[in-house]
Specification:
- By secondary structure, this protein is of the alpha/beta class.
- The longest helix has 20 residues.
- It is built from 14 helices and 12 strands.
- Strands 1-7-6-5-4-2-3 form a 7-stranded mixed sheet, sandwiched between helices.
- Helix content is about 40%, strand content about 15%.
- The structure holds pyridoxal-5'-phosphate.
- Pyridoxal-5'-phosphate (PLP) binds next to helix 4.
């Protein structure tokens, strides 16, 4: 089955749902059993064999299974676990791989709240984090310690857009018995499958492109056989459960992901190319551009680009970026991305870097290119740059 067909059909069981196309929302905590024998059968299937079978609401319902099975098919995973946000997917995946006394390696380009989790929470449980230059590749060998159990990649970084050499990193990590996590939110499983590149766990902030409409928080953790027991144990022990309505919105969004992403890519490419031609712009950070330093790796490992990109200027100031952002018509100011609409926010990635200094002049801007007509988006940015220039003087 091709990817675009999987997006439509994977995980649906119309027989299970009496012919209904989209799996309905199963609201339920208690599941009742006919007798003790039936309860034992269910307990054995769910607790021992990890089968998808009704046992208790927290253990999942058909609404959850549909999304889990669809994501596993797309990511090429043994299973996919659901969490109530993208950040919790990152933190719980890490928790599922570590114990006190361990050391982990995390990319310096990581999503900032993931970094905050390592620095202010994980550290208090005796797990040490070292940040690495996202361009490290096989050079990560020099950073591995005897107690390194995990490498956490995010490719590309969601503010700085470096593409990482996941196959090279995974080769080194596996030789030392460490697992590899990739936060794959930017590409979604349609444009990159980290498990096929050697990662053990692929994370989606499904809040972004999978939900796709900026109206629910959701995370997915796709795992291979090696990573499954640890991560499943962490989620079960902590008691993570996703609301069935949100799982439903995830599946509903997923079914149109393919057409949406292709349009995001086409629009982003047009806007990125236009931005590159502007005299104010020092660099457009978008791996699909042939001039991007990550372009060769992107071409090797990805089959497309999504709609999120960065822009850094030759000269900049907070006032100039503020003047640009405050007058936009179609680009709204807001966090997150992956919905149908265009977004803009300031970008100052240097603040949190520790392994490799960020050298572009800040602030820059980060744009999410939505599904609007690019003529309107470019006109909006053109007027924004006029305000930027005026404020810069
Ligand atoms: C947004 C984001 C997250 C967190 O997702 P939430 O659903 O907002 O918690 C994690 N990783 C990356 C790369 C993100 O962009």
């Amino acid at each position: 089955m091709k990817k675009d067909t999987k997006v439509i059909h994977a995980g649906t069981d119309k027989k299970r749902n009496g012919g209904v196309v989209n799996t309905p929302v199963y609201h339920g905590s208690t599941v009742v059993f006919e007798n003790m024998a039936a309860l034992h059968v269910a307990a054995d299937k769910v607790l021992k064999k990890r089968e998808k079978y009704l046992f208790y609401g927290r253990r999942g319902t058909p609404t959850h299974w549909t999304l889990q099975e669809a994501m596993s098919a797309l990511e090429g995973a043994a299973d996919t676990l659901l969490t109530p946000s993208g950040l919790s997917a990152c933190t719980l995946a890490i928790l599922g791989c570590v114990k006190a006394g361990d050391h982990i390696l995390v990319t310096d380009s990581v999503y900032e709240p993931t970094r905050a989790f390592c620095d202010t929470f994980l550290n208090t449980f005796g797990v040490e984090t070292t940040y690495y230059d996202p361009a490290v590749g096989g050079g990560i060998a020099a950073l591995m310690k005897p107690n390194t159990v995990l490498v956490f990649c995010e490719s590309p970084g969601s503010h700085t857009f470096e593409i990482q050499d996941i196959p090279a990193i995974a080769k080194v990590a596996h030789a030392k018995g460490a697992l590899v996590i990739a936060d794959n939110t930017w590409a979604s499983p349609l444009f990159c499958q980290p498990l096929k590149l050697g990662a053990d766990i692929s994370i989606q902030a499904a809040t972004k492109y999978i939900v796709g409409h900026s109206d629910a928080l959701l995370g997915t953790i796709a795992v291979n056989e090696a990573a499954l027991p640890g991560v499943a144990k962490a989620l079960a022990a902590i008691g993570i459960a996703v609301a069935p309505d949100d799982a439903y919105l995830g599946t509903r969004g997923l079914r149109t992901l393919s057409v949406r992403l292709k349009q995001h890519e086409q629009n982003a490419m047009k806007v990125a190319t236009w931005l590159q031609s502007r005299p104010e712009v020092a660099r457009v950070l978008f791996p699909a551009l042939p001039s991007d330093p990550g372009h060769a790796l992107w071409k090797r490992d990805f089959s497309g680009a999504s709609g999120l990109l960065g822009v850094f200027f030759k000269r900049t100031s907070t006032e100039a970026v503020t003047a640009m952002i405050d007058g936009m018509t179609y680009f709204s100011l807001g966090y997150s991305w992956g919905g149908f609409e265009s977004l803009i926010c300031p970008s100052n990635p240097g603040k949190s870097r520790t392994a490799k200094a960020w050298t572009e002049a800040a602030p820059g801007i980060r744009l999410h290119i939505g599904l609007e007509d690019t003529d309107d988006l470019i006109a909006d940015l053109d007027e924004g740059l006029a305000r930027f220039n005026k404020a810069l003087g």
